[in-house]
Design brief:
The structure holds 2 protein chains of 2 kinds. By secondary structure, chain A is mainly α. Helix content of chain A is 69%, strand content 2%. In chain A, strands 1-2 form a two-stranded antiparallel sheet. In chain A, a hairpin with a 2-residue loop joins strand 1 and strand 2. Chain B has 9 helices and 20 strands. By secondary structure, chain B is α+β, with helices and mostly antiparallel strands. Classes of the chains: A mainly alpha, B alpha+beta. The interface between A and B is large, with 42 and 48 residues.
Chain lengths: 319, 367
Amino acid sequence: MTATTGTLTAVDTRTGVAGPPRRGLQARRRRRLQAFRGVVLVVLGLFFLLPLGAMFEFSTRGVGEGAPRTMEAWKRIVTDQELNPAIIASLELAVITSVVALVLMVPTMVWVRLRVPRLSRVVEFLCLLPLTVPAIVLVVGLGPIYRWLDGHIGGSILTLFFAYVVLVLPFVYRTLDTGLSAIDVRTLSEAARSLGSSWPTVMLRVIVPNMVAAVLNAALLCVAIVMGEFTIANLLQYVNLQVAILQLGQADASLSIATSLASLIFAFLLLLILSFAGRRTRRTGKDPSPASGSTPSAPADGAQDPVSAPVLTPIVEEI
Amino acid sequence: MATDIQLATSQRSAVEVRLEGLRRTYGTVTALDGLDLTLHPGELVALLGPSGCGKTTALRLLAGLEDSDGGRVVVAGQDVTHVPTNKRDMGMVFQAYSLFPHMTALDNVAFGLRLRKVPAAQRRARASEMLELVGLSAQANRFAHQMSGGQQQRVALARALAIQPTVLLLDEPLSALDAKVRTQLRDEIRRVQLEVGITTLFVTHDQEEALAIADRVGVMRAGRLEQLDVPVAVYGSPATSFVAQFVGLTNPVPAIVENGSALVLGVRVPLVDPATPAGAGTALVRPEAMDLRQLDAAQAGTEAGAGTVSAISFLGAVSRVSVDVPGTGTMIAQLPTADVVDLRPGDRVVLTVRPDPVLVTRAAAAR
């Protein structure tokens, strides 16, 4: 550094060049990077939005040449007698599948981590297995079971949740595994136990609140998979949303396309809600899992410890 | 305020803790081999030992976090061997940071009270009291990731004490901290423990930590206690060669035991263990129990303990002088720095010992 007329000017020690030109170079690089980002965003946005725009355009076409645009197909999504039960059934299945998968998997995965870690590979293998079995093959095995279910507890479409829980297992497993890896499950549960917590309390008050983002992600994946599932429902002769869309497509293409687009928008909305929920947990420091994107930054001991630093300096707030 | 806190936290009188013949194996590895240990009411006992000696296993068995293969855990006269962790009423501070990340410091401290259904106002007051006890009132609303490691461990200590446990268990709570904070927090733990007057088991592999704050230090090896005594005795009169070598530095010096004393480097010194059998052995001498005398160039230096200075380490008020003694090896003498200012590596010196009691073992074999 050189001092000139009372002001300090930064000098690059390698080149001897004063600071401002280097800052200019960095600014140019930053601008170029921002422009590149913008181009990528626009190209990708068009790639995704053009088909959706086309779907919307098709679903709002009037009947006959030169007919004005109409939202008739969109209105019929909620009033169509064939579509409505399918939408409700798919939504119910999505909720039931999410709840059952999470209730089944969260305690199991925590238990395996704490008590029988040697079984973690086995559990992982079992959970990922459905990924390797095509849905059509799965149906061959599920067929007799569903015939039995039809005969004994009725042929409700909601019984599909048994199959769907198996279907979502790999995704739920992976998401929860990431969430659990981000926290020290053993220490937290032992600390809670030593303070007097029962196992359900440990689970509900300590483990789950620290992996909210992972649980939400898993639930979203469940909803997305169930709402988009076609093969199993169709082969087992149930009419869920996707089967109904296919059937409608043959009779009323506008309604079919409008429904498809609506289900996509529904998925986007869910993603948005999840994103806001994740941001909220980050703001309150509630979720340390990487799924939430939180980056804990504990202050250094020497700097922040009141014992080592008699005068407390305020810790930089993350919020 | 400290008095109020002391009154509040000392509502229960301190209890005696006994570990009786505790055994624990992991496959073919024996972690605890019939451990017997008694903690007197209000006492802080530090378990010290190398990695894998079983000290953490002993603490976890006492906490109920693991099941024993044999033996009993008795707290206040009651056998709690098969009582689950959450019913044992013990406060614990872990080696890893264990604050619940989704709760503030205050909520963390109040967690145990909430489980005990303490009314909200009382809970808050008590949690605030505990945070004040550990000097963190100002951090009450911070989350774990907004606190330093030292602060987190202090909150963990407050959380463990808030439930008024019968026993406090500290599982290497300072090992993740840097040296300066570790020393300060170590003293603070002792201060709080004395104020609260709670029976405490402190597990550490840091001998300085154990010697500095414990009422008694237990040195463990291979699942058993080698020695349990006050720090001065463990350091000054080690019961076994393992204790002597593990706690502090020792110089193995050839010695001859006869008539209830030992002849070490030409000096007759008393024995730690008067029952040591007569004959040749190895005396384990602390560096501070050694002395040295500089030889002139003219002096041959053929007497026992004669050697050459190989290094001098300045430690502040004292310095450590390493001396290569032919036939014995390198020995270390710790002396006031003022006494060694004239010494240089390569100087010829003669080592002697001060007439303090020494432990003599047969050759290099541990007892």
